[in-house]
Amino acid sequence: MRKRIITTDKNKIATPDDAWLDLEEIAEVEISSEDIAYPIEFALLPNQSSGWRAAEPGTQIIRLMFSNPQKLTRIWLSFAESSTERTQEFKIRYSSDNGESFQEIVRQQWNFSPTGATSETEDYSVELAAVTLLELSIIPDINSDKAFASLAKLRLA
């Protein structure tokens, strides 16, 4: 029997508990922009806390290209925004043929508000057999092209 204690602390974000893929070993990353103080490694590697942030406003793309095709069963992402009210949209898609064609996994919008929702955590169960490329596209604000995209964490299993 498996047992889990349910926390009532509303400020604590649930920590993912799967055996996450070691992205540093198995993937190459491409990004459309990167703030030097918040590199992509801060969102993709364990034991990092500040996350990634774009250096330029507007839509941003993060691509993970796998050396060998990967079986993915879980995609876990976390976003945080505590200073600006905005509606973010993100899209995740994958390719099994090195980017020749793509299948969309999810497209979602989230409303951030400094006086309300300041974080978004998404946990997707998937059954993807031979992923060669995973792409995350972030529109930081669907109502403005002046917002900067960010990603607190991305984990894959």
Describe the structure.
This protein has helices at about 25, 40-45, and strands at about 25-30, 50-55, 60-80, 85-95, 105-110, 120-140, 150, 155. With about 160 residues, it is mainly β. The protein has a single domain (about 25-155), classed as Jelly Rolls (Sandwich). The longest helix is centred in the first third of the chain and has 4 residues, at about 25. It has two helices and eight strands. The strands form two sheets. Strands 1, 3, 4, 5, 6 and 8 form a six-stranded antiparallel beta sheet that branches. A two-stranded antiparallel sheet has the order 2-7. The two termini are about 25 Å apart. A hairpin with a 7-residue loop joins strand 4 and strand 5. It comes from Methyloprofundus sedimenti. This is Carbohydrate-binding protein. InterPro entries: FA58C, Galactose-bd-like_sf. Pfam families: F5_F8_type_C.
